[in-house]
Design brief:
Structural class: mainly beta
Strand order of the largest sheet: 24-25-30-27-28-38-35-34-37-32
Number of helices: 1
CATH topology of one domain: Leucine-rich repeat, LRR (right-handed beta-alpha superhelix)
CATH architecture of one domain: Alpha-Beta Horseshoe
CATH class of one domain: Alpha Beta
Distance between the termini: 105 Å
Strand content: 35-45%
Radius of gyration: 31 Å
Number of strands: 41
Helix content: under 10%
Largest sheet: 10 strands, mixed
Length: 450
């Protein structure tokens, strides 16, 4: 066996020239032998021209295609394992990675089809694309909490991998990270994750359930594509859901929303451009139509919210929206809009010709209602109203009234001409102060007219 060293970009195969005597590091980058060794212990040091040098990295393709190699021990002191370092070592059953290693390169163990388990030490901060792809009998893997990203296709086609716990340091699950893990039954996604990449669990045909935390803002296209035994997907939050993310799964996909408690009701707005969703039995769905300084709410009777449609939800508890294949025509004539991504407010206004102001629902000192929004970004998954305040609603806030469904005026929050806005208790706007005796709503208060 010959170990080659690379130094300062110069490859020296037989004669080694070291000019900087203070540098005592060497990289193993190629393994040359008769390819019959089954066990290999990489030395911690090598001697060159009578001087001892520490082995600190295993370079690209160092042991690539060593098909008979069954066991390898990497010495403490090695900090990096290069691209394809052990790629295609089809008989490799065991590898010991020391605590000194901080990075595992792209395809480092790709297609090591005899590798059953691997322990990645807590020193590792990065694991490259395809690092363990094609390790077809890999049953268990420990991902340390020092890793912040699971890169693209890291565990793709690890068909025997059954259980995965992703540590709460990971923020990003890469594209096709666990694609074709055919025996994967359970995965825990922590609150730290914000992005689930496209195809990340593509064709995990034995995955039965998944819970997605409210930290996730984006579920990529085909993320759970063809998960044929996925029975339930619980989404806590309202992320952007990519095309065909749950295509050809039998799953009941439910979004659990967090709403604001106002009086005895829970209120929130909802927008999703991935799928149609239907509200649960405790929730009413409303479209909104602007009339001067008021927002008239009209109930959507079938509770179905078509993709790309923004609505208001009112519930006796936090609303639950469930994916449905049904369509609805009930939201026609709706002034509410939405965005699937967090978007600069100025960009929203610029892209809507009839708007120079944005109104969003909330509870302020003026009361609960739709208020002029001055924040930098318009949130994703929320409804908003784009208004031309020079011609339409000039108020800083909009009165909320019900067009149908005699529930009365739930709340009023208008800063403009407040005393001139009169309503009956069923929410009907009056032309002015009523002359008939009775109880009416004027501004934010119920008023008795005698």
């Amino acid at each position: 066996m010959t170990l080659y060293a690379v130094w300062g970009g110069t490859v020296n195969s037989m004669t080694y020239t070291i000019t900087d005597e203070e540098k005592r590091q060497v990289e193993l980058f190629e393994y040359e032998g008769d390819n019959t060794e089954e066990t290999l212990v990489i030395p911690a040091t090598v001697t060159i021209n009578g001087k001892e040098f520490y082995v600190t990295s295993i370079g690209n393709q160092a042991f690539y295609l060593c098909s008979n190699l069954q066991s390898i021990t990497i010495p403490n002191g090695v900090t990096s394992i290069g691209t394809y370092a052990f790629g295609e070592c089809s008989d490799l059953e065991s590898v010991t990675i020391p605590e000194s290693v901080t990075s595992i390169g792209n395809s480092a163990f790709e297609n090591c089809s005899a590798l059953e388990s691997v322990i990645i030490p807590n020193s590792v901060t990065s694991i490259g694309d395809y690092a363990f792809s094609g390790c077809s009998i890999l049953q268990s893997v420990t991902i340390p909490n020092s890793v912040t990203r699971i890169e693209n296709s890291t565990f793709e086609a690890c068909r025997d991998l059954k259980y995965v716990t992703i540590p709460n340091s990971v923020t990003n699950i890469g594209d096709y990270a666990f694609c074709d893990c055919l025996n994967l039954q359970s995965v825990t996604i922590p609150e730290s994750v914000t992005i689930i990449g496209k195809g990340s669990f593509y064709r995990c045909i034995n995955l039965q359930s998944v819970t997605i935390p409210n930290s996730v803002t984006n579920i990529g296209k085909e993320a759970f594509f063809k998960c044929e035994n996925l029975q339930s997907a619980t989404i806590n939050g309202n992320p952007k859901i990519g095309t065909d993310a749950f295509w050809k799964t039998p799953a009941t996909v439910a979004i659990n929303l967090t709403a604001s408690e106002i009086g005895n009701d829970y209120w929130t707005t909802f927008y999703n451009d991935g799928y149609n969703f239907q509200a649960d039995e405790y929730t009413k769905v409303y479209k909104g139509t602007v009339n001067e300084s008021s927002l008239m709410l009209t109930e959507v009777e079938d509770k179905i919210v078509n993709r790309g449609t923004a609505v208001i939800l009112k519930s006796s508890e936090n609303p639950v929206m469930t994916l449905t294949e049904s369509d609805s025509n009930d939201t026609n004539g709706n002034d509410l809009r939405g965005r699937s991504d967090r978007t600069l407010r100025t960009d929203v206004i610029a892209n809507i010709s009839d708007a120079n102001a944005i109104y969003t629902m909330g509870n302020t000192s003026a009361g609960f209602g739709f208020h002029r929004y001055t924040g930098e970004y318009v949130p994703a998954g929320k409804a908003f109203l784009p208004l031309n305040t020079s011609n339409g609603a000039k108020a800083q806030s909009l009165t909320i009234v019900f067009a149908i469904g005699s529930t009365g005026v739930k709340s009023v929050s208008s800063d403009s001409n407040e005393q001139n806005d009169w309503f009956s208790l069923d929410g009907t706007r009056l032309s002015g102060k009523p002359s008939q005796p009775g109880i009416y709503v004027n501004g934010k208060k119920k008023v008795v007219v005698k």
